[in-house]
Amino acid sequence: MSVVPYKDKGDPKKAQVAEMFDNISPKYDLLNHVLSLGIDITWRKKAVKMLAQDKPKLILDIATGTGDFAIEALALNPEKIIGVDISEGMLSEGRKKMKKKGLDHIIDLQLGDSEGLLFEDNKFDAVIVSFGVRNFENLEKGLADMYRVLKPGGKTVIVEFSKPRKFPMKQAYGFYSNYVLPQVGKVVSKDKSAYTYLPESVQAFPDGEDFLAVLKKVGFTSTVCKPLTFGISSIYVGVK
């Protein structure tokens, strides 16, 4: 059974994830940076650098949220970035951000399902995701659709939480994610379930070599996993 935000509801995971992000969208950026102590910004910058040699011109940002990863990807000097997300609330916050920063001409945020992308085959030079793949209802299906829309030779770069396995980070991270994070999230976002779901979804996610195996299964080659900050997060790379 997949991990869902609202255990008392019978809705599919996809619908619950969209509802959760709609609920927390006004406070999402603040919470994201505070709860990660700002390290998430560094993680995204490192992920973007892994595409530097590829010089992608058309980039798809899956589970774009409010568009933070898309903004970081502008360092690659692309012609266009399209961000898709299932939460209209997150996209609304993102569009306001793009307009304020004068980026709405190059970053286009669209409502879309990562497991059923409305793009033709072999369209994008790169597909990027930050902290979104563990929210897929069907992980394999979502990754397969990312593979489909990539051009041959194109690269996917994925940033996702992982599980620290060494003392003392394993114990410290466990305490933080299971006790501190849900309480802070509840107070700021008014949605207790959202920040209880986060550590549960990280625990359920097949990280490290297990995730690389899924990437390979759907067709990606030259797969790489680069752990970050004592294994709290990882960057995954795959080539079509």
Automatic annotation (TrEMBL):
The reaction(s) this protein catalyses: a 2-demethylmenaquinol + S-adenosyl-L-methionine = a menaquinol + S-adenosyl-L-homocysteine + H(+)
Catalytic activity, EC: 2.1.1.163
Binding site for S-adenosyl-L-methionine: 66, 85, 113-114, 130
Alphabetically ordered keywords of this record: Menaquinone biosynthesis, Methyltransferase, S-adenosyl-L-methionine, Transferase
Pathway linked to the protein: Quinol/quinone metabolism; menaquinone biosynthesis; menaquinol from 1,4-dihydroxy-2-naphthoate: step 2/2
Alphabetical GO biological process terms: methylation
Enzyme kind, highest EC tier: transferase
Residue ranges that the Swiss-Prot or TrEMBL entry lists as coiled coil: none
Source superkingdom: Bacteria
GO molecular function terms noted in the UniProt entry: 2-methoxy-6-polyprenyl-1,4-benzoquinol methyltransferase activity; demethylmenaquinone methyltransferase activity
Pfam families associated with the record: Ubie_methyltran
Record's signal peptide: none
Function: Methyltransferase required for the conversion of demethylmenaquinol (DMKH2) to menaquinol (MKH2).
Annotated NCBIfam families: MenG_MenH_UbiE, PRK00216.1-5
Family statement: Belongs to the class I-like SAM-binding methyltransferase superfamily. MenG/UbiE family.
HAMAP family according to UniProt: MenG_UbiE_methyltr
UniProt protein name: Demethylmenaquinone methyltransferase
Organism: Algoriphagus sediminis
Gene giving rise to this polypeptide: ubiE
